[in-house]
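does this look right to u?? coenzyme A version
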Amino acid sequence: MPVRPPHSPTDFAAYYQLRYQVLRQPWQQPPGSERADDDDHPATIHALFTAPDGQVAGVARLHPAAPGQAQVRYMAVDPTYQGQGVGRQLLDYLEQAARQLGLTECVLHARESAVAFYQRQGYHLVASSHTLFGSIPHFLMRKEL
Ligand SMILES: CC(C)(COP(=O)(O)OP(=O)(O)OC[C@H]1O[C@@H](n2cnc3c(N)ncnc32)[C@H](O)[C@@H]1OP(=O)(O)O)[C@@H](O)C(=O)NCCC(=O)NCCS
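got this back:
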């Protein structure tokens, strides 16, 4: 399985770099804006997808958000590797980790452009949520694990 947790400082540098490149840089957000306060919390699970050529192709994270509930955040696949199953495998890995923790549902706030991807992975649209950077509508989605 090409998905694993990041371990070394090099892994984590590549992990946050890809998160920044995909989710922050295109909207002119400053370096550091890709970090969340609970990234270093022991309950937060990080996932790194390494391509056969050794490149970090995708990253994502999950944390326990409420009793019985997991939340996925910061899913980012390098554009070079998009559409090749990387996102699906990252999500499968995180959902499996959540099940092992006894969590029974997973929620996320999807960018409008990613809603159809999450629907293919079994998520249902719950409601519209926030708009990021004044221009990216998000939608709350949910899946029974
Ligand atoms: C959205 C994203 C995570 C999907 O990852 P990916 O590796 O490109 O997707 P996969 O190749 O695993 O796709 C799995 C399936 O979903 C489909 N799919 C992927 N992206 C899709 C999209 N935007 N719209 C509709 N379907 C999509 C694929 O065709 C594939 O279908 P299949 O089951 O018939 O094979 C990735 O494209 C990405 O990082 N996008 C930019 C950042 C982003 O929007 N992140 C999510 C923030 S909420």
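The two ends are 20 Å apart (CA to CA). idk if thats expected tbh
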